[in-house]
Task: inverse folding
């Protein structure tokens, strides 16, 4: 059965810190890995990764995929209180998107 | 990005009634839409994949007679929760792909409370 596991499940840091969120996957016919940010409503798209070792960057957020290790990380530098959210990792297989449990990130001022 | 809307955003209903939730892709055509539900502090669970003009594909454990899905056009899919019960209370989210793209764009979700 396809599976996506995220760690940590919960993380509390101070504003300005750098955080790394982890995602590992076991998916048949892997096609891509996606990161989403979920605040109070539905998830908003952050990154889609298909190639190993190529970093994708958007402002203070960056992500990279390691197909050999079947994993991905999401980095957030110089965190701000507005980064507080649940970060979801999802893996696209042949048929569907499988989500991890999410990491609840809290940034304290 | 792409815009997906859902209606209603929140609904409260009595046990035994049916509730219809609409999902629309506003600026693109979506041959495939997906329906998820999310319980508090849990991740998204795929319920079904909705294909325009054909029957939906349901995930294991999801009752197709209880969660009716209709995808009548390239921009609209509906989910009807029939004979709703309190355990159906949840956050229902739809998503859609642009044609030939894998990124799923999510609607804002519908919070259903069944009394």
Result:
């Amino acid at each position: 059965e396809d599976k996506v596991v995220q760690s940590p499940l919960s993380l509390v840091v101070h504003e300005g810190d750098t955080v790394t969120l982890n995602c590992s996957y076991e998916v048949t016919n892997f096609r891509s890995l996606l990161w989403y940010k979920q605040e109070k409503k539905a998830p908003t798209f952050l990154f889609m990764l298909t190639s190993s070792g190529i970093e994708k960057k958007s402002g203070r957020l960056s992500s990279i995929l390691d197909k050999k290790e079947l994993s991905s990380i999401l980095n957030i530098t110089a965190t701000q209180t507005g980064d507080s959210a649940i970060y979801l990792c999802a893996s696209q297989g042949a048929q569907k998107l499988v989500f991890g449990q999410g990491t609840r990130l809290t940034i304290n001022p | 990005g792409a815009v997906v809307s859902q209606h209603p955003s929140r609904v409260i209903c009595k046990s035994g009634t049916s509730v219809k939730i609409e999902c629309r892709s506003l600026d693109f055509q979506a041959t495939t839409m997906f329906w998820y539900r999310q319980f508090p502090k849990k991740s998204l669970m795929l319920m079904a994949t909705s294909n325009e003009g054909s029957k939906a594909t349901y995930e294991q454990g999801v009752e197709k007679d209880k969660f009716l899905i209709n995808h009548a056009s390239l921009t609209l899919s509906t989910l009807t929760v029939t004979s709703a019960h309190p355990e159906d209370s949840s956050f229902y989210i739809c998503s859609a792909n642009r044609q030939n793209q894998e990124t799923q764009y999510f609607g804002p979700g519908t919070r259903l409370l069944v009394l």
Remarks:
- The mean pLDDT of chain A is 94.
- The first strand of chain A starts at residue 3 and ends at 7.
- The radius of gyration of chain A is 13 Å.
- DSSP finds no helices and eleven strands in chain A.
